[in-house]
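Hey, can you fold this?
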Amino acid sequence: MQRILRNYIRPHLLTIGLATFFMILAAAMTGGLAKLMEPIIDDVFSADGANHLWPVAFAVFGAFSLRGIATYGHTVLMNKVGQSVIATVQREMFAHLISMDLSYFYKLTSGHLITRIISDTTIMRSAVIDSITGIAKSALTLLILMGVMLYQDWRLTLASMFVFPVAAFLVAKLGRRLRGLSMNMQEETGELSSLLNQSFQGIRHIRAYGLEQHEETRIGKTITKLYKLYCKATRMSALATPMSEILSGFAIVTIIVYGGYQVIEGTTTPGKLFSFITAFLLAYEPMKRLAKLNTVLQTGLAAAERVFEIIDIKSSVVSKSKADVLQLSNAPALSFAKVAFSYSDENNKSKGALDAISFEVPAGKTVALVGPSGAGKTTIINLVLRFYDANSGLISIDGKNINDVTLESLRSHISLVSQDVTIFNDTVSDNIRSGRFDANDNEIEEAAKAATAHDFIMDLPDGYNTKLGEHGLKLSGGQRQRIAIARAMLRNAPLLLLDEATSALDNSSERAVQQALQTLQKGRTTLVIAHRLSTVQNADIIYVMDEGSILEQGTHKELLKQNGLYKKLYGKDQN
């Protein structure tokens, strides 16, 4: 809560100050209504009541009107503050997550991350708006009404006040248990979101293999867990109401008995007693609201812990404080010198991926990496882009250590086309423009033509303005690849990385994509990962990898003569 107040609430102090003024006004009017009960009973219902009727009636109307206006004012202002706070937190969370290294995204599923950005911040919103507004207004109202009670009869006030500390103690105890429950509920909500995401994305596989019942059972278990947690939380939070009711009942009995004797003995008037009882009954409402708000607050703080847990995690891949800006004018040379790397799993156990490998990609040349799955080929691509940092060794571009340059400048000189093409649910133009956002429509069209994508784009319902749907579902695999190549064309980076860009395509699509790739590779230094060896036969150098090491190197013809792993892989490829 201190962090929320310091970092997110403080910029809105002027708005909160105005809202507080309206809260004080609303609380004062509530206290005024309790005090007005005295003249209503003692003056209006007396023999001279006609002279007091209209003034008291107008005073009551004025108090209700001012309270309504003040309540509207502080509600609107505090909701504005709350919405602004949550929008800031969501922007901060996303900006932080999008800059994290890839290893973080393998530890948490997209469902859990989405839940934290949407669900947890929504719960925080309730904590910020309801708690700050409700606690401030209820506390002010409670204080003013206690002031009225003390003014009317301080002895009777002290006699009836035992209810407040007892209620506060019990509510605080409940709050601590609710906070833990809320954490569990939010964790299970994230798990449910993750499972639903997996099922919807894999719906074809589920239908094809008859897994509907299995998925219903798996997701049903999580839904049942959530149901039980919500029921337990409801029972616990609902306990505040009977506790408050019972304690208030004792207090009211005390007031009626003690105050009744005073009226009978003539030491106080019926109006004063009625005003006191009204003040107490009105004070009971803010007390009850405070008890309920504690539940909202504890739930919100549990969500805030999860939100700040995300924001506070530091990325392991960052630019150095005095990193240089990488500047390349021509096709650069790429070098790996004794580079070793291991992945860490969720239990921080290391799994070796590269074993002190060294190789060169000469300037302006095309170099291919081939080998069986798990050989470490994609890891090399990830290290060049600094999605991860090597455990040891040196990766350099034109003799410059990539760890000594800024991440932004490094990646701005690299184009990546992989087998997993990212197509956004946006127009064709904007998907291509993501390669370079300052590109105009003519440049986008030229890039599409170079990628042999222009013709099929023009056949789409709205041409370049056609929205492509989630994951580009309106396109075939080959069309998606050519959109990705057009994006790389537009970026016009001197270093090109091709990660099995044609592995999932049929022969017809592969020929079209290969034609586009040949155009893209001209004048660039290119590092290719190939699944089909037939696609890299013309590479200047081919490195054959297995289990994180380079076993062979040479041209296609040279490697066939060595009768090693490459020849075996080539034989399988031909079959």
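Oh, and this one too while you're at it.
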Amino acid sequence: MTRKILKILLTSVALGCVFSGLALGACDSKEADGHEHVYGDWTLNAAATCEENGLRTHVCLVCGRSEEEEIPALGHDWDSGTETKAATCTQTGERTKTCRRCQQTQVSEIPTVAHNWDAGTVQRAATCQHEGELLLTCVVCQTQQTVVLEKEAHRYRVLNTKEATCEEDGLQNLQCSVCGDTATEPLPALGHRWVAGETDREATCTEPGLRDRTCSRCHTTEKMEIKALGHNFEGEFTVDKLPTFEAEGSKSYHCTRCGAHGSETVIPKLDANTPIDYEFRVMRNNGDKILDSNLVITVFDGDDQVAQSTRSTLINGVFTANLYPKTYTVTVTNLPEGYSAEPKTAEAGNPYCDLYLTAAPIATPADRTTRYSIGSVMHDFVISASMTTTGKEYRLSDLLKTKKAVVLNFWATWCNPCQQEFPYINEAYLQLRDEIEVLAIDQSTSDNVQSVKQFAVTYGLTFPLAFDLTNRLQSMFGASSIPTTVVIDGEGVVCEIHTGAILSPESFLSLLHPYLTDSYWKNPAKKSQTAAAVRAECILPEKRPFSD
């Protein structure tokens, strides 16, 4: 039976009870027996407003009992309001809001605004002796306010000076030109400006060295300790003892300066029936690894190929092949342009085979697509005699026959940083010109051969300067700014590309030094061909052609 039908039946019963006079007390008694009221729909008696509550009732369909319920007041629904009176710097304003339901209004206060002061009139100027006064006036209400102007600083001039020295402070006596007040100002000690002198004892890996140094200001001389260098175990390990079929071998890292051994690693002894890992390491004559993944290393047993590297097996310039311990012939092909390599024999008892590549300047001229980076082999180039300050022709391949390194410096006559670094280049060149050649190449379109030659004469430069737009060398190094310094080693390989001025002799010499010593060449065959090592350190005098 649906709820609607139930309601009709219950209503009929209730009405019957009323008319028969049985309703009196019936609901209460039924409620006591578990009767629950069944109410009908609510009837709105009074609607709620913004400020007053409303009322609604509903009636029990069984007994006719009526129940009332209060409806809460709605509250005002204010709009954003309208400014009905503008605020000024002397009076508050008013904003009126209106209820969207009952149209009742509410007025709120708008605070006063700040005064609109003018630029002010100076009543008394401030000096170093007393404060000043500035009178401000509001342009709206004409209210006035006085502002204090702080005292001005004394305008001191120097009466006399006791100059500071390297070790003692100086002093300046001052007097104000306005009020005559006097004061003193300390001048901090200058500190020594040391210039390195002769080295009494070279520093080693474990022992400090000793060197003279002289202050260029006061000429004080003292001994300076040179910090011990410390061992340098960087690079590849060295096989100290080859394994044999009867005994284990050993390998360790050696100090690149003094040859001291680091910690040793055991190499297992050989077994003719057990393959071992042969490591084939591709590197330059100076020991730098060749990381070009296009290289191909091929291993031959007689005429039979037994192993060959691929792009995935040549890792960081090393190819590892598991082979029986015996003698093999190894070749390296698919080399970067400018490099070459002779076949190498891998010894039966030495599973570590270093494959040294030789480089030489590329005979064919560079084209417009050539770009150099660290490790690139230079194309040969020529700067004609008519374009140099020395009147000589300079060909890269010829220079490398007698020099250990060639320095290219890109500059222009109008470049201040270039002028600042030229003293250090000039002084280093005077000491190292038997080992290096410097070519300072002006590639500015606003210069010419005559301006370059005049520049060299004006500043007393001894290294060659040239004006050269033909070879376009600067663009090949990706050098977008000047000065840029490039170091090319004895095989014609680009080793350094330094952008920006080099503003100390130590920095310039440290850039060159690694490429001039005997220890630069790690390949014993290459090393035996080099001349004696140059001095480990080069100390430059203080005098600079471009000093202030």
